[in-house]
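A sample follows:
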Amino acid sequence: MFFEINSIKQLFEFDDVCIDDFAFRLHYKSTIIILIISSLFITSNQFIGEPISCIIDDIPANFINSYCWTYGTFTNAEQENGDIQPGVGSVNKGKSEIKYHKYYQWIYFTLLIQAILFYVPRYVWKIWEGGKMQKLSSNLNLVITEEGYKFEGKEIIINYMKKNMGTHNDYALRFLLCLVLNLINIIAQLYFMDYFLNGEFSTYGLEVLKFINMEPEERVDPMSLVFPSMTKCSFNKYGPSGSIQYLDGLCVLPLNALNEIIYIFLWYWFHLVVFFTAVSIVYHILIYVFPYILMTLSTNMEQNGCSLVGI
């Protein structure tokens, strides 16, 4: 249902008749496009290039790369302020505080799932709306429509809105409910991403701003702590005497350079969308409580291809 080519294509097109508002479209158009493009970038880099490159003595490169990618890498949380590279110093097995990094294997998949969830409120609203605005507009948005017909049609719509004020409360409440569903979804996804990134995402954007304003000698890049470009990987094997040898190596994760850019953008974007959605909810609540606000707007509205909702 969600992966039909026509459905994806519609995300990049302008609607003939708008059945929602600007904040709503930020969810099911802009955010979904951003998530899908981000997932495609990560997928191309993950499966075309080398997502990981590890070095451990006496272990074939192809084998250790696959092993470390599958079982995950780690950094030493006690050395995040390291002079050379954060978290890649010596590890005291059983005593050092280890921070494992396995989420990079699943980022492209989680971004696609998030994109699907952002479409759910839109899907619900399209079912509830039932094409009412399309029928009400009577093709007034078409370029070839004569100006006289447009004027008469606009007058009919305005008169209809005035005469039927208060008779579409269920319609308005359903739209408001879908807006609230959008807000719940994006806030839940913010919490999910924080959990997914081991509690590092909630303050990610603020830490980046703090990093920019710090003195160069005091800086510890927060992006390198969440998405380290260099990590460690350990491998146990039997030695010549039959004892188990603990081998410690270094891994370079070039894919994380892209991940950190994507997630810092998503941090700011998601918070911006939360703000606009909250403003939209308050606006529609005011219209519902004080309907004469809508009457004033309808009287002065200009035909621009979109119809007011919530009437």
Q: What stands out?
A: The first strand starts at residue 53 and ends at 55. Strands lie at 53-55, 73-76, 98-101, 230-238, 244-252. Confidence is low (pLDDT under 50) at residues 1-5, 301-311. Residues 215 and 221 are 12 Å apart (CA to CA).
